[in-house]
Amino acid sequence: MSKVGLLLISHSYQLVTGLRELLHQVQPDVSIAISGGSDGGIGTNAFDIKEAIESIYTEEGIVILFDLGSALINAELALELLDKAQVEIRLADAPLVEGGFAAVVEAGIGGSLQEVLEAAEGAKQLQKITR
C-alpha cells in the first residue's frame, strides 16, 4: 500500500538533507523528497520544488512542509505549474522539523492525506519546555 509522501522545502539544502535523514530513520517506508537552496546558495526554486513533487507523487498525496516565507511563495508557484491531475497535495502550516516528525509518523502508520496534514499542523501546539 502506498503512503502519503512528504516534501521538505528549505532555503538550505543541508537543512532538508539532514531532516530527511532523520525522518527516514523514523519511518523508512515513507517517500520523502527535498528541495533546498537555489543555484548552490540559500533560497528556494519553484522548478526544483515541482520536480520534487513529481518524484514522489502518488494518488495517496503529498504534504509539503517549508521553512520561511518565500519557500511558501515558490511552493504555491510550483503547484500552479503541475499537471492539474495532481490534486492531492496540501501545504502544511507547521514547523518544519517538529511538523515533519509528526507527519512522517502518521504517514508511516498509513494515515490519510488529511490525517498527515493534521499531524504536521498539530506540532504547532507542541510545548517543548514546561515552566
TrEMBL record:
It comes from the Bacteria. Keywords: Kinase, Transferase. Its EC number is 2.7.1.121. The keyword Transmembrane helix does not apply. Residues 3-131 form the PTS EIIA type-4 domain. The keyword Transferase applies. GO terms for molecular function: phosphoenolpyruvate-glycerone phosphotransferase activity. It catalyses: dihydroxyacetone + phosphoenolpyruvate = dihydroxyacetone phosphate + pyruvate. InterPro entries: DhaM, DhaM_N, PTS_EIIA_man-typ, PTS_EIIA_man-typ_sf. It is an enzyme of class 2 (transferase). Component of the dihydroxyacetone kinase complex, which is responsible for the phosphoenolpyruvate (PEP)-dependent phosphorylation of dihydroxyacetone. DhaM serves as the phosphoryl donor. Is phosphorylated by phosphoenolpyruvate in an EI- and HPr-dependent reaction, and a phosphorelay system on histidine residues finally leads to phosphoryl transfer to DhaL and dihydroxyacetone. Homodimer. The dihydroxyacetone kinase complex is composed of a homodimer of DhaM, a homodimer of DhaK and the subunit DhaL. PANTHER family: PEP-DEPENDENT DIHYDROXYACETONE KINASE, PHOSPHORYL DONOR SUBUNIT DHAM (PTHR38594). This is phosphoenolpyruvate--glycerone phosphotransferase. It comes from Metabacillus endolithicus. The gene is dhaM.
